[in-house]
């Protein structure tokens, strides 16, 4: 079995590569990644030592390069993680989100059709459903919840999902889609809430909480996302969407306070800053379908996962200190100074 993992030098894709190499010895795994600001080859250092793994630098929107790779490698399965993934960046500069997330998906699907890939999996997000109100804790996103996007990021992911479904219907393209809630764990890029708060707290810098910090996210430990995708690509039904989430809803302010407590840092570091434009209030996944059809259940509770994650960031300081000392500094200044 030969699998193409796009975006594998990023957070979830790299975790997926390590998961697959361990879980399925003998599978060949090829990573295609453009190494944007979010991609990091250091993350794949250990995978590089495995003869079943290969890294290829390339852009999923580069049709010729993608075709050549597919022609040469003859993939059985394609899992598309490659994306621009940060909502705040999409609000500042939407265009690259449309290019990578929509057109890149089309290029990958065209190559998959031409070279007869047996299964194409699109890694999507719960953000395509928009948000839920805070005063209706009884509501959850199911696979039937209408698409209703809020940010250029989520609109680009939803557009890609629609294209995938259209390719399935029109060409019988063997595709599946998963829509997961917020992930956390090792190799999470420091622009995102949890790693940003860990890094700032360790440096005794202020922790910028948007609005009142009451927005709710449904946190899933990244390894549980990987196990769900593994099940879908092997046993999921083509043409189907599977929601992935583990009922770990937390208000942002509670996540931030937990991190401070674990690190022994004072809550006085918290600073409430101007809210994100169009900020979604609450995400909450109903994972009944993937549980009933594929037997998936998450293994890691938030209380354990957040401790493991904090420990990982403490044990792997060079990985993230390297990132935040580079061009990330300019990003941070632009997004947070005078906010
Ligand atoms: P990330 O930003 O950490 O990594 C994205 C990777 O894609 C990087 O390695 C980057 O170099 C690569 N990439 C970007 N543009 C590319 C291009 N044009 N060609 C090739 N490679 C390119 O993202 P992540 O958080 O790991 O998210 C991975 C996927 O999972 C995304 O599709 C995202 O929408 C989805 N998702 C993320 C979460 C989450 O909580 N992070 C939750 C649900 C779904
Ligand atoms: O739900 C899945 C989505 O989760 C993925 O599709 C996205 O790729 C991923 O980035 C994530 O999106 P969010 O916008 O939910 O994640 P982020 O870490 O950016 O923010 C989480 C919450 O924390 C959100 O309500 C905004 C808030 N926040 C974020 C940052 C970076 C803050 O309060 N302060 C911050 O500095």
Commentary on this structure:
This protein is an alpha/beta fold and 339 residues long. It is built from 13 helices and 13 strands. It has helices at residues 11-23, 45-48, 63-73, 87-92, 95-114, 152-171, 193-202, 222-235, 252-263, 288-294, 302-315, 317-324, 328-336; strands at 2-6, 28-33, 53-57, 77-80, 119-125, 175-180, 183-184, 207-210, 216-218, 220-221, 241-244, 249-251, 270-273. The strands form four sheets. The chain has a seven-stranded parallel beta sheet with strand order 3-2-1-4-5-6-11, with helices on both faces. A two-stranded parallel ribbon has the order 7-10. Strand 5 (119-125), helix 6 (152-171) and strand 6 (175-180) form a beta-alpha-beta unit. The structure holds nicotinamide-adenine-dinucleotide and 2'deoxy-thymidine-5'-diphospho-alpha-D-glucose. The site of 2'deoxy-thymidine-5'-diphospho-alpha-D-glucose has 19 residues, from helix 7 and strand 8.
């Amino acid at each position: 079995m030969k699998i193409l993992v796009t975006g594998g030098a990023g957070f979830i894709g790299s975790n997926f590569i390590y998961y697959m190499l361990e879980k399925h010895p003998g599978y060949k795994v090829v990573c295609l990644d453009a190494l944007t600001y979010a991609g990091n080859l250091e993350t794949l250092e250990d995978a590089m030592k495995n003869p079943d793994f290969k890294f290829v630098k390339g852009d999923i929107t580069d049709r010729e390069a993608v075709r050549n790779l597919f022609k040469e490698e003859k993939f059985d399965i394609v899992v598309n993680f490659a994306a621009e993934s940060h909502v705040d960046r999409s609000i500042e500069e939407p265009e690259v989100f449309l290019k990578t997330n929509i057109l890149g998906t089309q290029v990958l699907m065209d190559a998959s059709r031409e070279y007869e890939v047996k299964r194409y999996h699109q890694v999507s997000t719960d953000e395509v459903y928009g948000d839920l109100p805070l005063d209706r804790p009884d509501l959850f996103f199911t696979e039937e919840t209408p698409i209703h996007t809020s940010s250029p990021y989520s609109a680009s992911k939803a557009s890609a999902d629609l294209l995938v479904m259209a390719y399935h219907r029109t060409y019988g393209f063997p595709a599946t889609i998963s829509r997961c809630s917020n992930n956390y764990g090792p190799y999470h890029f420091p622009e995102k809430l949890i790693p940003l708060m860990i890094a700032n707290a360790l440096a005794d810098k202020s922790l910028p909480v948007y609005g009142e910090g009451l927005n709710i996210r449904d946190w899933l430990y990244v390894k549980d996302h990987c196990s769900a995708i593994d099940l879908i690509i092997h046993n999921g039904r083509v043409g189907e969407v599977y929601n992935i989430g583990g009922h770990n809803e937390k208000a942002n302010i509670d996540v931030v306070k937990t991190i401070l407590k674990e690190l022994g840092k004072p809550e006085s570091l918290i600073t409430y800053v101007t809210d994100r434009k169009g900020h979604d209030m609450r995400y909450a996944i109903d994972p009944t379908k993937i549980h009933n059809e594929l037997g998936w259940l998450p293994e890691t509770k938030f209380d354990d996962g957040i401790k493991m994650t904090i420990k990982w960031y403490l044990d792997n300081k060079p990985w993230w200190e390297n990132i935040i000392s580079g061009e990330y500094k300019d990003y941070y200044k632009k997004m947070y100074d005078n906010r």
